[in-house]
Amino acid sequence: MKTALYPGSFDPFTWGHIDIIRRSARLFDRVIVGVYDTPDKKLMFTTEERVAMGQEAVRDLGNVIVKPFSGLMVEFARREKVNTVVRGLRVNNDFELEFDMAMINRKLAPEIELVCLLASPEFQFLSSSIMKEVARLGGDFGDLVPPFVAEAVRAKVR
Description:
By secondary structure, the protein is of the alpha/beta class. It is 43% helix and 20% strand. The protein has helices spanning 15-27, 47-57, 73-79, 92-108, 128-136, 147-157; strands at 3-8, 30-36, 64-69, 84-89, 113-118.
């Protein structure tokens, strides 16, 4: 069974994340969406809230599960018996960041492969950070995330 891990902070889940998850679910027998609990970011949502949002986002996908994780991503991947990590690429600076992470992960866990999926054109610009900034400033962000995520974001920015 080919299992892939799609790790991230997912604060919160956007349509771009969900697109990568759905495409990964077609490529792999099983996909684990790993919600990193302590990224070096100012989070809007708790780990539990982000996991719950992820579970709601993928509830119709029978081969996708959402789990929180701590520590090194490669150690989580090993515990979960994952042989492939999936990442989404939007723009050039994503490539540079992903390349650096891939090189250190290759050193730490050479048995784990990296697969990068290019973001669909309609999501090339989309990031959780941009979406949260639009929300904080009162802009319309409802089409960037599922309705249940939009409601949760609106509740946080009130």
